[in-house]
């Protein structure tokens, strides 16, 4: 059932794919609920194992449908027992003569499940273009022993997380030994490029001696200098692929070096809170499950122990005030994050005027 919401009241870009959940979060049986863009969304797998997403709110007295029961592909409301099918249509009313009122239906949302992620479209349904879902096939093609997916939660606005990933100069200062880049990124003005479909890339190249700790043991000479790079590609509204690598005696990172293929994406829960999805793969030690587990743990620990506290404290300090109205001081390292902010602001304004 399509029930068009008023996007002019939304502070978010509506006509875009957001990540709703990791595939592994929605199992074959349970009802899974998550608030996305200020709307509670119920997700479950139908009997064909496809993910169904609908508003987690009964149209009768607004009880969350996730409190209810599954009867095959149908959801029974916990409160007064209305039944809704996977298209959001009411298919059973146990009250009175059983007639189903015309408006008795629930909003459903287009879903694409791919590469370990469940993407959702919460805008105008006729504009949902599957071609705009990011290509993350590396997480399907690489062996499981070289792939990890994880979920985090941040009590801050989603755009602060985007700033954090688009301005990696903070890695010089904020991060502990595993990811530290030894002061090499901050002196640079990174290369920023505008790509197709409003995508924006940012790249740093540098030499570090020895290589970043995460890569050091994978270098032929562990204590010597390595060439390093990191490149982030943002796509609206809030997803970023991030490749980072090190190499010695070559300029071919992919074939001669060690490269991580990471993905960061955020989905606003509300204006003040953020779902943070992460995936990672690599081109070295691809069969080593134990290394995979340790590497994921190390990275998640860095994001939750090092990035998250400052992002949340920064947001507590900013409160509800608009980013631009606070007159932030701008540095050369902000060149990518500012380009992203302006692009996203433009897309939101265009959508609201349309
Ligand atoms: S609130 Fe769902 S049937 Fe009444
Ligand atoms: Fe960071």
The top level CATH class name of the largest domain: Alpha Beta
Overall mean confidence score, pLDDT: 96
**Most strands sheet:** 7 strands, antiparallel
Order of helices and strands: EEEEEEEEEEHEHEEHEEHEEHH
**What is the name of the CATH topology of the largest domain?**
Naphthalene 1,2-dioxygenase Alpha Subunit, Chain A, domain 1
Attribute tags:
globular; 354 residues; Naphthalene 1,2-dioxygenase Alpha Subunit, Chain A, domain 1; 20% helix; 4-stranded antiparallel beta sheet; alpha+beta; single chain; Rieske Iron-sulfur Protein; 7-stranded antiparallel beta sheet; 17 strands; binds fe (ii) ion; binds FE2/S2 (inorganic) cluster; 6 helices
Could you give the topology of this structure?
Elements: E1 17-22, E2 32-36, E3 39-45, E4 51-55, E5 69-71, E6 74-76, E7 83-84, E8 90-92, E9 111-114, E10 117-121, H1 138-141, E11 147-154, H2 158-166, E12 191-194, E13 200-208, H3 213-216, E14 226-235, E15 239-247, H4 253-256, E16 258-268, E17 274-282, H5 289-318, H6 335-353
Helix pairs in contact: 2-6
The structure holds FE2/S2 (inorganic) cluster (FES) and fe (ii) ion.
Structure description:
Helix content is about 20%, strand content about 30%. Helix 2 packs antiparallel against helix 6. It has a seven-stranded antiparallel beta sheet with strand order 11-17-16-15-14-13-12. A four-stranded antiparallel beta sheet has the order 5-6-7-8, with no helix packed on it. Strand 5 (about 70) and strand 6 form a beta hairpin. It is built from six helices and 17 strands. With about 350 residues, it is α+β, with helices and mostly antiparallel strands. The model has no long low-confidence stretch (mean pLDDT about 95). The protein is globular and about 80 Å long. It folds into two domains: about 5-130, 3-layer Sandwich (Rieske Iron-sulfur Protein), CATH 2.102.10; about 140-354, Alpha-Beta Complex (Naphthalene 1,2-dioxygenase Alpha Subunit, Chain A, domain 1). It has helices at about 140, 160-165, 215, 255, 290-320, 335-354; strands spanning about 15-20, 30-35, 40-45, 50-55, 70, 75, 85, 90, 110-115, 115-120, 145-155, 190-195, 200-210, 225-235, 240-245, 260-270, 275-280. Bound molecules: FE2/S2 (inorganic) cluster and fe (ii) ion. Fe (ii) ion binds near residues 170 and 307. FE2/S2 (inorganic) cluster binds next to loops.
